[in-house]
Amino acid sequence: MTLDIKICGLKTDEAVDAALSGGASHVGFIFFEKSPRHLSPAEAGRLAARVRGKAKSVAVTVDADDATLDTIVSAMSPDMLQLHGRETPARVAEVKARYGLPVMKAFSVRDATDLDAVAPYRGTADRFLFDAKPPKGSDLPGGNGVSFDWQLLAALDPGLDYMLSGGLNAGNIADALRQANPPGIDISSGVESAPGLKDPALIAKFFEAVEAARAGLPASRELTS
Q1: For the whole model, what pTM was predicted?
Q2: Of 148, 69, 48, 62, which Cα lies nearest the Cα of 105?
Q3: Among candidates 216, 212, 203, which has minimal Cα distance to 19?
Q4: What's residue 65's pLDDT?
Protein backbone atom coordinates (compact mmCIF):
# COMPACT_ATOMS: atom_id res chain seq x y z
CA MET A 1 0.00 0.00 0.00
CA THR A 2 1.18 3.49 -0.74
CA LEU A 3 1.62 6.42 1.62
CA ASP A 4 0.84 9.80 0.12
CA ILE A 5 2.72 12.74 1.61
CA LYS A 6 1.44 16.29 1.23
CA ILE A 7 3.56 19.29 2.14
CA CYS A 8 1.13 22.15 2.55
CA GLY A 9 1.39 25.92 2.68
CA LEU A 10 4.31 26.33 0.29
CA LYS A 11 5.29 29.84 -0.80
CA THR A 12 8.81 29.69 -2.25
CA ASP A 13 10.72 27.92 -5.01
CA GLU A 14 13.10 26.48 -2.43
CA ALA A 15 10.30 24.94 -0.38
CA VAL A 16 8.64 23.45 -3.45
CA ASP A 17 11.94 21.97 -4.63
CA ALA A 18 12.61 20.52 -1.16
CA ALA A 19 9.17 18.89 -1.10
CA LEU A 20 9.69 17.38 -4.52
CA SER A 21 13.22 16.21 -3.67
CA GLY A 22 11.89 14.45 -0.59
CA GLY A 23 9.28 12.60 -2.58
CA ALA A 24 6.06 14.49 -1.86
CA SER A 25 3.06 13.12 -3.70
CA HIS A 26 1.07 16.35 -3.16
CA VAL A 27 1.94 19.99 -2.52
CA GLY A 28 -0.60 22.43 -1.16
CA PHE A 29 -1.05 26.15 -1.75
CA ILE A 30 -3.23 28.09 0.68
CA PHE A 31 -5.72 30.79 -0.22
CA PHE A 32 -6.87 32.21 3.09
CA GLU A 33 -5.86 35.76 3.90
CA LYS A 34 -5.63 35.24 7.66
CA SER A 35 -3.01 32.54 7.19
CA PRO A 36 0.72 33.32 7.14
CA ARG A 37 0.86 30.80 4.29
CA HIS A 38 -1.58 32.70 2.08
CA LEU A 39 -0.44 33.57 -1.43
CA SER A 40 -1.96 35.01 -4.58
CA PRO A 41 -3.44 32.84 -7.33
CA ALA A 42 -0.81 34.15 -9.75
CA GLU A 43 2.06 33.18 -7.46
CA ALA A 44 0.50 29.80 -6.79
CA GLY A 45 0.23 29.27 -10.52
CA ARG A 46 3.93 30.00 -10.96
CA LEU A 47 4.89 27.57 -8.21
CA ALA A 48 2.45 24.92 -9.40
CA ALA A 49 4.18 24.94 -12.76
CA ARG A 50 7.33 23.65 -11.00
CA VAL A 51 5.28 20.77 -9.61
CA ARG A 52 3.45 19.67 -12.74
CA GLY A 53 4.29 16.12 -13.72
CA LYS A 54 6.16 15.50 -10.46
CA ALA A 55 3.44 15.75 -7.81
CA LYS A 56 -0.20 16.79 -7.51
CA SER A 57 -0.91 20.43 -6.75
CA VAL A 58 -3.71 21.16 -4.27
CA ALA A 59 -5.54 24.48 -3.88
CA VAL A 60 -6.61 24.89 -0.25
CA THR A 61 -9.57 27.21 0.39
CA VAL A 62 -11.90 28.04 3.27
CA ASP A 63 -15.57 28.62 2.40
CA ALA A 64 -14.57 30.21 -0.91
CA ASP A 65 -17.28 31.45 -3.27
CA ASP A 66 -17.44 30.61 -6.97
CA ALA A 67 -15.75 33.84 -8.06
CA THR A 68 -12.78 33.17 -5.80
CA LEU A 69 -12.50 29.57 -6.94
CA ASP A 70 -12.80 30.62 -10.58
CA THR A 71 -9.79 32.89 -10.18
CA ILE A 72 -7.73 30.26 -8.37
CA VAL A 73 -8.50 27.46 -10.81
CA SER A 74 -7.85 29.69 -13.81
CA ALA A 75 -4.50 30.93 -12.50
CA MET A 76 -3.21 27.71 -10.96
CA SER A 77 -4.82 24.77 -12.79
CA PRO A 78 -4.69 22.61 -9.65
CA ASP A 79 -4.97 18.85 -9.68
CA MET A 80 -7.22 18.88 -6.62
CA LEU A 81 -9.27 21.26 -4.50
CA GLN A 82 -9.19 21.07 -0.71
CA LEU A 83 -12.17 22.55 1.12
CA HIS A 84 -11.15 23.39 4.68
CA GLY A 85 -14.19 25.31 5.89
CA ARG A 86 -17.81 24.53 6.69
CA GLU A 87 -18.71 23.42 3.18
CA THR A 88 -21.81 21.20 3.07
CA PRO A 89 -22.08 17.98 1.04
CA ALA A 90 -24.16 19.95 -1.47
CA ARG A 91 -21.41 22.55 -1.79
CA VAL A 92 -18.79 19.85 -2.32
CA ALA A 93 -20.95 18.42 -5.12
CA GLU A 94 -21.33 21.88 -6.67
CA VAL A 95 -17.59 22.48 -6.65
CA LYS A 96 -16.87 19.09 -8.19
CA ALA A 97 -19.41 19.67 -10.94
CA ARG A 98 -18.23 23.21 -11.67
CA TYR A 99 -14.53 22.42 -12.07
CA GLY A 100 -14.37 18.71 -12.83
CA LEU A 101 -11.66 18.29 -10.20
CA PRO A 102 -11.39 15.88 -7.28
CA VAL A 103 -12.20 17.43 -3.92
CA MET A 104 -10.65 16.69 -0.54
CA LYS A 105 -12.87 17.73 2.38
CA ALA A 106 -11.21 18.60 5.69
CA PHE A 107 -12.67 17.88 9.12
CA SER A 108 -11.60 19.11 12.54
CA VAL A 109 -11.29 16.35 15.14
CA ARG A 110 -11.16 16.39 18.92
CA ASP A 111 -13.10 13.27 19.89
CA ALA A 112 -14.77 10.27 18.28
CA THR A 113 -18.08 12.05 17.69
CA ASP A 114 -16.38 14.49 15.32
CA LEU A 115 -15.80 11.63 12.90
CA ASP A 116 -19.58 11.15 12.56
CA ALA A 117 -19.62 14.24 10.34
CA VAL A 118 -17.91 12.29 7.56
CA ALA A 119 -20.85 10.06 6.66
CA PRO A 120 -22.91 12.61 4.65
CA TYR A 121 -19.88 13.37 2.47
CA ARG A 122 -19.10 9.80 1.48
CA GLY A 123 -19.70 9.28 -2.20
CA THR A 124 -19.29 13.00 -2.84
CA ALA A 125 -15.87 14.02 -1.52
CA ASP A 126 -13.04 12.10 -3.18
CA ARG A 127 -10.82 12.17 -0.14
CA PHE A 128 -10.90 13.35 3.45
CA LEU A 129 -8.42 15.17 5.66
CA PHE A 130 -8.52 14.93 9.43
CA ASP A 131 -6.96 17.84 11.31
CA ALA A 132 -7.05 18.82 14.96
CA LYS A 133 -9.63 21.32 16.11
CA PRO A 134 -7.98 24.75 16.29
CA PRO A 135 -7.04 26.15 19.69
CA LYS A 136 -9.44 28.63 21.25
CA GLY A 137 -8.96 32.05 19.69
CA SER A 138 -7.20 30.84 16.55
CA ASP A 139 -8.33 32.33 13.23
CA LEU A 140 -6.90 29.39 11.32
CA PRO A 141 -8.88 26.20 10.64
CA GLY A 142 -5.59 24.35 10.12
CA GLY A 143 -1.85 24.84 10.37
CA ASN A 144 -1.97 25.45 14.10
CA GLY A 145 0.63 22.86 15.02
CA VAL A 146 -1.69 20.91 17.33
CA SER A 147 -2.62 17.24 17.10
CA PHE A 148 -5.45 14.99 18.22
CA ASP A 149 -5.69 11.40 19.43
CA TRP A 150 -4.65 9.47 16.34
CA GLN A 151 -6.03 6.24 17.76
CA LEU A 152 -9.52 7.58 17.07
CA LEU A 153 -8.93 6.87 13.39
CA ALA A 154 -8.74 3.14 14.06
CA ALA A 155 -12.55 3.12 14.10
CA LEU A 156 -12.78 4.37 10.51
CA ASP A 157 -13.77 2.14 7.62
CA PRO A 158 -10.46 0.63 6.39
CA GLY A 159 -11.44 1.60 2.85
CA LEU A 160 -11.80 5.30 3.62
CA ASP A 161 -9.27 7.39 1.71
CA TYR A 162 -7.90 10.16 3.92
CA MET A 163 -4.90 12.18 5.00
CA LEU A 164 -3.87 12.65 8.61
CA SER A 165 -2.92 16.21 9.52
CA GLY A 166 -2.38 18.35 12.58
CA GLY A 167 0.79 18.79 14.59
CA LEU A 168 2.89 16.29 12.67
CA ASN A 169 6.66 16.64 12.71
CA ALA A 170 9.82 14.56 12.44
CA GLY A 171 9.67 13.74 16.13
CA ASN A 172 6.18 12.25 16.24
CA ILE A 173 5.56 10.88 12.76
CA ALA A 174 6.60 7.37 13.81
CA ASP A 175 3.92 7.35 16.52
CA ALA A 176 1.33 8.74 14.10
CA LEU A 177 2.02 6.08 11.49
CA ARG A 178 2.03 3.31 14.07
CA GLN A 179 -1.23 4.36 15.72
CA ALA A 180 -3.27 5.36 12.65
CA ASN A 181 -1.50 3.74 9.67
CA PRO A 182 -3.12 6.37 7.41
CA PRO A 183 -3.23 6.25 3.59
CA GLY A 184 -1.77 9.76 3.52
CA ILE A 185 -0.20 12.41 5.74
CA ASP A 186 -0.23 16.20 5.51
CA ILE A 187 2.27 18.52 7.18
CA SER A 188 2.61 22.28 7.27
CA SER A 189 3.80 24.02 10.45
CA GLY A 190 5.92 21.00 11.41
CA VAL A 191 8.46 21.87 8.69
CA GLU A 192 8.61 25.62 9.38
CA SER A 193 11.27 27.69 11.12
CA ALA A 194 8.68 30.46 11.67
CA PRO A 195 4.95 30.76 10.89
CA GLY A 196 4.57 30.51 7.13
CA LEU A 197 8.32 30.04 6.50
CA LYS A 198 9.07 26.55 5.24
CA ASP A 199 12.57 25.29 6.04
CA PRO A 200 14.08 23.00 3.36
CA ALA A 201 16.25 21.34 6.01
CA LEU A 202 13.21 20.53 8.16
CA ILE A 203 11.38 19.20 5.12
CA ALA A 204 14.31 16.87 4.37
CA LYS A 205 14.45 15.80 8.03
CA PHE A 206 10.74 14.98 7.96
CA PHE A 207 11.09 12.72 4.94
CA GLU A 208 14.03 10.98 6.61
CA ALA A 209 11.89 10.41 9.70
CA VAL A 210 9.07 8.98 7.59
CA GLU A 211 11.47 6.55 5.93
CA ALA A 212 12.86 5.47 9.30
CA ALA A 213 9.37 5.05 10.73
CA ARG A 214 8.24 2.96 7.80
CA ALA A 215 11.22 0.70 8.18
CA GLY A 216 10.07 -0.08 11.70
CA LEU A 217 6.46 -0.87 10.85
CA PRO A 218 5.51 -4.53 10.39
CA ALA A 219 3.14 -3.69 7.52
CA SER A 220 4.52 -0.41 6.29
CA ARG A 221 3.16 1.48 3.35
CA GLU A 222 5.32 2.31 0.35
CA LEU A 223 5.99 5.95 -0.34
CA THR A 224 4.20 7.33 -3.37
CA SER A 225 6.79 8.67 -5.78
Answers
A1: 0.90
A2: 62
A3: 203
A4: 98
